[in-house]
Amino acid sequence: MDDFLDVIRNDHHQFDKGKLEDHFGDEPFTLLAKWLREAIEKPATEPNAMTVSTLGLDGFPRARVVYWKELLEEGIVFYTNYSSDKGKAIEANPQVNALLYWPELERQISITGFAEKVPAEMSDAYFESRPRGSKLGAWASHQSEVLDSRDELEKRVAEYAEKFPDYVPRPEHWGGYLIRPINVEFWQGRPSRLHDRIVFNLKPDNSWELHRKNP
């Protein structure tokens, strides 16, 4: 164990993949789209994975990795079960944070904002694009609830496969959330841990205030 910890403690590799200049436009979405595109083109491992954090009903924060699937002018979209722990947390408190991290580019984006359900037609369109197995899983999984056995889950999948032999409709408890940002921080690793941190804050007049942060 000590040898393993020594490796971690002594990992002082330099960050040297890029830098952030002083001119970024007057809103965060252009740079957000640019970084998302570059993460895909790199390609980064799981470029559309992000950690979404919510405040649980018990008052404790919870975080989990989900996939962003849409980038709109208003924010970023992911899809999930509305009856899950995160769905219940968002229903009670829509304030969330999403963190995207791409080690290959030495970049992070932290998005703080409010989550809201997307229109049903948007959820329908995305659900229709999913593989049949994923569609059946959305019906069969009582997400976040206690499961007595794997057999119980697989039995429900088989039941829904029989119920929906062809077309699988979207269940009402499944759909998308749009995160509307009020704060977006772009982090670019730099040598000597003197990282670039650029922050956009949404002002009451819906314009964006831009500043740097110390690393």
Summarize the structure.
The chain is 29% helix and 33% strand.
Class by SSE composition: alpha+beta
Task: State the helicity in percent bands.
Answer: 25-40%
What is the CA–CA distance across the termini? 31 Å
Oligomer: single chain
Please compute the radius of gyration using only Cα atoms: 20 Å
Assign an overall shape.
elongated
Q: Could you give the order of the helices and strands?
A: HHEEEHEEHHHEEE
Largest sheet: 6 strands, antiparallel, barrel
Strand order of the largest sheet: 1-2-3-6-5-4
Strand content: 25-35%
- Low-pLDDT runs of 5+ residues are none
- How many strand units? 8
Mean pLDDT across all residues, rounded? 91
Number of helices: 6
Question: In words, what does this structure look like?
Answer:
With 215 residues, the chain is α+β, with helices and mostly antiparallel strands. It contains 6 helices and 8 strands, in the order ααβββαββαααβββ. The protein has helices at residues 2-9, 29-41, 85-92, 120-129, 132-140, 150-163; strands at 49-55, 61-71, 76-81, 95-102, 107-117, 174-188, 196-202, 208-212. A 6-stranded antiparallel β-barrel has the order 1-2-3-6-5-4. Helix 5 packs across helix 6 (150-163). The longest helix is centred in the last third of the chain and has 14 residues, at 150-163. The two termini are 31 Å apart. The model has no long low-confidence stretch (mean pLDDT 91).
